[in-house]
Design goal:
7-stranded antiparallel sheet, two-stranded antiparallel sheet, about 25% strand, SMI1/KNR4-like, alpha+beta, about 150 residues
């Protein structure tokens, strides 16, 4: 699914911040992710965009983490502060790139770049998609049945 309406976007001027992160943390992001983050860095979908995992359906995508080394006190959530999941026993296996509405981290699994989500309270991981492209293709807009 192509997300057409985004808020709080800070487009990257170039890919240097991404390349710096890749070098520092020894992780190569997929090109499909780099294409999205170049245009929608730190963005929040304007509509309630959801995805499904191996244990849950209808999980809302809240925001993509941004690549800003300089802290912006109005929105300090970025890859440098939150991409490595220091609180999780899986921190050496995952790189977070987004959060859902509960604050759970949506991550790349380092070994195969599949997409998983981490339940931060139980510290368990749930499979979401085989790739970033599959993740984006699997997004859908939630429509409240009570409003129809």
């Amino acid at each position: 699914m192509e997300i057409k309406q985004w808020g709080y976007v800070e487009p990257l001027k170039d890919m240097e911040e991404v390349y710096d992160f890749e070098r520092e943390y020894n992780f190569q992001f997929p090109e499909s992710y780099k294409n999205v983050i170049m245009e929608y860095n730190g963005g929040h979908p304007e509509l309630e965009v959801c995805f499904d995992s191996s244990l849950n359906t209808g999980t809302a995508l809240w925001m993509f983490l941004g690549f800003q080394k300089v802290r912006d006190t109005s929105d300090p959530i970025n890859m440098w502060d939150h991409g490595l999941l220091d609180y999780s026993k899986y921190k050496d296996k995952l790189v977070a790139f987004a959060f859902d509405e509960k604050g759970w981290a949506i991550c790349f699994y380092r070994d195969d770049k599949s997409i998983v989500i981490v339940d931060k309270y139980k510290d368990i991981i749930m499979f979401v998609a085989r790739s970033f492209t599959s993740f984006m293709d699997g997004l859908y807009v939630y429509i409240d049945p009570d409003l129809n």
